[in-house]
Each structure stands twice: as C-alpha cells, then as structure tokens.
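Subject: mismatched residue count in predicted assembly?

I count 662 residues in my input, but I want to confirm that the predicted structure covers every chain. Input:
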Amino acid sequence: LIKVRYEELPAVFDQREAMKEGAPLVHENLHEYKHAPYIFPKPHTNIASHFKLRKGDVERGFAEADFIVENEFYQPQVHHVQMETHTSIGQWLPNGQINVWTSAQSPFAVRHLLSVGLGVPIHKINVHVPYVGGGFGGKAGLHWEPLVVLLSRKAGGRPVKLVMSREEQFRTVAVRQGMYARIKTGVKRDGKITAEEIEYIWDTGAYADYAVNIGRAAGYSCTGPYEVPNVKCDSYTVYTNHPYGTAYRGFGCPELLWAIERQMDMVARKIGMDPVEFRLKNAALPGRITASGEKLRDDAGRVDQCIKAVAEAIGWGRKEPRQINGKLRGKGIAALWKAPAMPSFASSSAIAKLNEDGTVTLSIGLIEMGQGTPTVFVQMAAEELQMPVDRIKVVSKRETDYSPYSWQTVASRGTFMDGNAVLQALKDLKRQVKATAAQLLGMPEDSLEIADGRVFVGREPERGLTLAAVATCGVLPDGRGIRGPIVGYGYYTAEGLTNLDPETGQGLPALVWTFGAQGVEVEVDPETGEVRVLKVATALDLGKALNPLLLKGQICGGVVQALGQALFEDYIFDEKGALLNNNLTDYKIPRAPDIPDEFVPIMIENPQSNGPYGARGIGEHPTISLQPAIANAIYNATGVDIYELPMTKEKVWKALKKSEVK
Ligand code: SMO
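Triage response: the counts match. Full output below for your records.
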C-alpha cells in the first residue's frame, strides 16, 4: 500500500572519477564523522582515508636508476561467496537483555559495536556464534545484528531471524574492494631496485567498513616481499556508489601483489634478467628493512627459499615443448608476504580447566569456520601435558558471556596469537598442578613433572599422584583439603607494535610476516583464450608445521579460491550502478573441471622464536599470489601481458588478437 517515489541523485561508479574535483559526494558530512586516529579522511571529498608512506628519497633513487618502468594494474570488486550466507537472530528482551545468534568471525567486536551503537552496556549483551559456514573476512565485523535486535524490540522481545538469500548476499553485504594500482620502479642494470613510487586507489563503495584498514595495511606492505631503499606510497580508500568494501582473505595483499608481482616480471624483462634471479636479488631477507622501516628479525621467514622451492617444483628453466595439441604452455612465478593487519592492542586469551577425572577442557574466543585451529590447540595441550588427544576437548560454543576474550578471528592470527594464549593457559595449569602436588608429596615444585595423566617426581617417577587427585583440590593424609580447582588462564598481546607516523607511515605494524611464493604451469588455447592451470606449487615459510593435513587443506582451498579471482570473478554493473550478476549462474566460481591437475604444497620451516613451537599463520597466504603467477605464465606462454583481473577467455583472446595485429 506504500507508494514510493524515487528521486535519482547523481552517482559515481569509479574510484578515480570519485577522486576528481566536483565528483558527487557519497558522504557530504564526512567532516563530522568520528574516526580512529590511524584513519585519514579528507573532508568534502570522497576520500575515506589517505595512507601515506615515505621511506628514503624516491627522487634520488630514480636519479640513480638505469631504467624506470611504470605500469598500471586493475582488479574489480569480488565476493567471498561463503557457503553459508549471512544469518543472524536477534532478541531484545523487555528486561533489557540482548541476545544475538549470528554467523560472525568476531563475536566480541559484534558485542562492542552493538553496545556503542545501541547505547547499551556490554554486560547486557550476549553474542552466540555457532560453527560458521565460511567467513573469509566477509563476516569479520558487524552486519545485520543491529537490525534484527531492533526489530525484536519492536516485536516485544520475540526473536527475529534474518537469512540472506544468495542474491541478497551478493547485492547487500560487504565485498572485496576494487583497486587501481600505478607502480613506477627504478632499477639498476645489475637488477637492484633503487626506488618505487606506488599508488593504490581502492573502491570501497558506499561505506568504508574494514576497507580503510585494508588501505592502511596495503600501504605499509606496499612493496611486497622486497627491500626497496626509497619508497613513496599513497593508498587512497575512496567512496563510490558501489557495494561496500571489507576484508577478504588476504586483506589487501592479493590486490597489491597482483600489481607488484606483475611489475616485477616486467622490470626483469626490461633489464633482461631471469625473473627468479631478479626477485632473489631484491628479496626482503632477515636483517633487511621494510617499507615502514622495520628491520626484519633474524628468525624471520625466508622468501628466497620459498621462491627457489616453487621454481624447482614447476621445473623453472627446464627445456620443454612450448606447444602441445595447438595449445601454448608457459610457467610463471610470484612471491608474497603478509602480516596480521590489526591494531597494536589486539589481544587473545584462553582458559584450560582440569576436570575431576584428569581430563582437560579448553575454552577459547577464536571462531571455528573451517580452518581447524581448535584441533591445533588440542595438539598443543596433548604436547604440553603429555596426554592423549582424546582426554582433551575444546568447548565448541563461542558465547561472549562465557568465552574468554579474543579480539577477532581474522588476519591469519589464530594459531599465532590464540595459540600463544593457549600455551600460556596450559603452563598456568601445570604450575597450579605442581603447586598442589608439591604440598601433598612434600617435594619442591621444580622437582615435579607431568605426563600420562600423572604428576610425579622427575627422578622417582613411581612417586606421584594422578591429575584427578589434584583437580578440584588436594587432600592431605589427615583429610584436610588444600588449594582448589585448577583453572589455567593465558593471554597474548602483540606487545611491541607501534602506531605509524601519519606523514611517513614509519613504525612497527607487523607482528609476524609470513613469506611465500607460488608457481604455476598453464596452458592457453589461442583459438578461445581459455586458460587452464595445470599445476600449482605453493611454498610458505610457516615456521613449524603443527598439523600438516590442515595446512594442506588451507593451501589447496586457498589456491582454488584464488583461481576464481584469477580467471572468472568480477562484479558487473549496468550504467546506473545496478549489479547484473548477483547469482551463481552469472557470477562464476571454480567448479570441478577448473581445478588444477596437480597441487604441490611446500612447507618451509624456519621457526620464529615468539610463535607457538615456532609457527606462523598461513590462513590467507595461499590466495595471495596465484593471480600474478598465472598472468606471468600467460606472458611466458604467449608473449601477451594482462593488466586487469579477471583473466577471462574473452579478455585473453582479445589481448592475443591485439598482439597479432601489432
Ligand atoms: S581478510 Mo580477514 O578476516 O583478516
């Protein structure tokens, strides 16, 4: 019965257009918005944040160069396509209690933002998160939770549930922002890069959400895994009238490495150097200085070892037939790096309870969404307590009223940060076990050991107690109880991270860099432009492989997800900005016939002393450099350069035709 009249307002659909003077403003009142101090909006423009990085002197660096190579690259907005669409239930009871059940990566962030947004204290809000059917960054923040909570209040406290259809999921929830990159590289004849001037221009759509943080993370990661002495980077996050941008597995790194790793091949070509050798020459090795001025630690990961490993795995440089059945074959390589993108104050905690029968229950705040981190935590407890895994459980529920705090399940930080918190909780549990047992056995605590469900004197293993005997309290021979239930608590905060200088971006933003490389062999059909990826090698310096099977799953899954971004995925709009492909018929993701014939996951282990058992995170990394590796392989096969994602048949075919005309 409601009649709607629409007044069409001027709109802007390209981030470079949106930066121009006189462009329609998406947020006219930007100057009134509150924002975090590390975000730099420009009032009365569409720039939601301008991140600046200045290292050394680029003008001098370009003057020293023998060659200068400049290129532009582009990638469109794409979607996470989680199997489970966004789903939330809200309940605002008349007594003021708010309950939320939601498919989210960050229950504590949902609770915090609901509290701020609704003006309700945190203890009145309980956020439940069951197993999540895929997040990939798209469920990292607050989404439909406020809407269902407010509807519930209107409905007198009855729960209200909202499940996105696939079409709504494409159109209304957050996406990966699109990006234009311009990269100018100065290089010496011998292959040493002297300077780089970099511009990243992000399409964050109608709202900034996580995209302003992505612009920042891409800014301090701007050079990729190389040491460049002189760097000038400007990373602009820009409002348009497109769907809004957020985190997506890799948090800016797949986008920036698409540009950087294409550029690296093109610069190598300019000076006539092998692209593998060129990368090794400039690699960010331990002791070298990153763009933000960080000296890489002595036990940092080794990108050179990753590059060499994938080169060997794909037979780089081997003489092989270039043409088979009329199809052209080629190989390509791309390196990568990424650190968890998070504020310096992001922390994690964990609780380890010793039960009455000597079994152990772990509570964590980290979400399980398919990555399997809780399994790794069970392994940690088994190792620390020398106990079989079936005596250990991780509580499956995450509920903010009961779960220990963890900032967010994002950024490939779970194994490193929550893993460290779990280790601390287990050490605390062991301290308490020994304190009770020391009193009962009349022995000093440091003479005791724990294994096989017992605490015992190290030098006299038969002298000891079961863990069950100390779990709730100790009992002295005369019957008196001592001490109490054993509950271990642990936390981890990335101490030592700093804010970045607002003018130069210098500082320490990265807890741990995970380095890697990807290499592919492709086959290009010159008749149709179709690209088939035959083989993918992915090498990651993950410090220590805690669970090789889960790691292999992450690597292969990530590669397939990136394959979609490389070859098919693209948000397509009509001239009025309406999304044309909001369904899985028109928005293609990889299917069984597209999967590469061969996956080679390579786990390189240079342990990092502050990681749990030396481990680093790798959740996002397998998705980062497949796209440029494929493009580099297409050039290797055909002599044609692709500058824009996705590399559809049509795009590759047109590029082949254009090169023939030349
Ligand atoms: S892209 Mo993520 O959830 O840091």
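The pocket of dioxosulfidomolybdenum(VI) ion is lined by residues 105, 137, 140, 247-249, 251, 410-411 (CB under 6 Å). Marking this ticket as 'not a bug'.
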